[in-house]
Amino acid sequence: MKLSGFARAVLAASFVAVPASHATADSAEKFRAQVIVGYEKFGFERNEQDFIGGAEASDWNTYDLAVSGAYDIDKKTAVAFDFDLSRFNTSGVEPGEIEDDSPKEDRTVGLSLLRKVGSDQLLSLGVSRGFIANTQREQDARKSFSAVDLAFAHQVSQWSYMVSVGQIFNGSQETQDALIRGRYYGLDADYSVNEQVTLGVSLDRFRGDEFDEGERKSSQSSQVLDLFGQYQLGDHFLRAVIRQHDNKREDVAGSNIGDIEKADGRGFYLSYAIPFGGSARKLERMILTSRPNKTEFANVGGSTMD
Predict the structure, then answer these.
(1) Residue 73 in 3-state DSSP?
(2) In 10 A of CB 29, how many CB atoms?
(3) Strand extents, DSSP E, the chain
């Protein structure tokens, strides 16, 4: 569809006698996208109060491939897509245990409508679908969920910020534990030091309910704090992130889990973004790549939807 849209734009331009070089440039600006490759090393801190079982991996090495892009419908409106694939290489299972309930792979596909609401303001309404595979002793578990979110991004001189809210719904319901609904919020801000260097911070909060055969079992929350630096190499972007997880699992009366269990962790993430078509605009790139990671929440400890 993207290539055919590009071809239609070039053909339409030829009928109004616009030079071919101009038509190609205008069409490229209408469609802009990027490919991002990333790697994360992450580890949970094991302690007596955590909810990471001995058979669950506490250390994750994640390899990530993401593609996102936007196509202009008119001067103020664009339709955007995003796709993310993550694969996990896990370790940290306690001696004598067979690995169980650990992340293996997840995929997310999303579609968004972007609307300019000011010269430096962008509003987004998005829907997404997530698919998760977890390592199990007998047979790997595959779960899914849907989500909808609203995001607003604003650029003021060298500062940019974004606020986002969303809802996870329609999660898989199995005979075992399943996180079938959740809410999330995000706040992002960055500062352009110069044309090449950007520094920023991101804070995401999630809260969801865990069910067992239709009965609410626990309430789970997660807070993810990112501190990042980004360097621009021509049209490419290199980003390094330090990540802190603060996860809690709160008991529901009668579930016999215990009052509050925690699972905190730290990680380091490195990514490289390569544009194609036209160069992604700053606020678009912020919305498409920095909204809260729903599958990350679903993969934390007892929230593995399995």
Answers:
(1) coil
(2) 14
(3) 31-44, 59-72, 77-91, 102-118, 121-135, 141-156, 159-169, 177-192, 197-212, 215-233, 236-251, 260-277
- pLDDT tens track, the chain, 306 positions: 444 443 443 333 333 333 333 444 444 478 999 999 999 999 888 776 666 767 777 888 999 999 999 999 999 999 999 999 999 998 878 787 777 777 889 999 999 999 999 889 999 999 999 888 887 777 777 888 889 999 999 999 999 999 999 998 766 655 345 565 789 999 999 999 999 999 999 999 988 877 666 667 777 888 999 999 999 999 999 999 999 988 877 766 555 555 566 778 899 999 999 998 877 789 999 999 999 988 877 665 443 333
The radius of gyration of the chain from alpha carbons, rounded to an integer in Å, stands at 21
Q: How far apart are CA 210 and CA 178, in angstroms?
A: 6
H helix runs in 66-125, sequence order = none
Q: Which of 73, 145, 120, 98 is nearest to 298 (CA)?
A: 145
Domain 32-303: state its class.
mainly beta
Domain regions of the chain by residue span: 32-303
Inter-axis angle of helices 2-15 and 20-30, nearest 10: 140
